[in-house]
Amino acid sequence: MNVTDRLVVALRTAGMPTGDAEARQDGQELTGRYVVVWQVAEYAPAGTAWDPNQDRTLDVQITSCGPTRRAADQVAEQARRIALGNIVPPDGYGWLAPAAYVTGNPTTRENPSDPARPELRGYYRADVYRYAITPTP
What we know:
By secondary structure, this protein is α+β, with helices and mostly antiparallel strands. It is 19% helix and 41% strand. The chain is built from 2 helices and 8 strands; from the N terminus they run H-E-E-E-E-E-H-E-E-E. It starts with a helix and ends with a strand. The relative contact order is 0.22.
């Protein structure tokens, strides 16, 4: 399992409806309060001169959704506690540094995805977290 997989597991274990790169879970569309997780960037290697690819830094985005602005913010704050908490490291790696909040957008109103039902608007907030990993012996 990689960093994104571990984060998805941690969110689901905490009881948060979580989509893995799309707003679906087990073939069902997510509605109400939920999050969607995906990796957005991997940075240049940060290892030693002898093994530059040893350590890695990855950014993972969590998009928190809700039917109201307040709901989306509440989901985002719950997800933040989990994203910055104690997550099991990915297979073959350990944490090089604690997870860090990098950036995010203010909670925004989302246009309805179904043109036949324009009343189905929601809100979302996208936050990005950084994870630094290093191989374990």
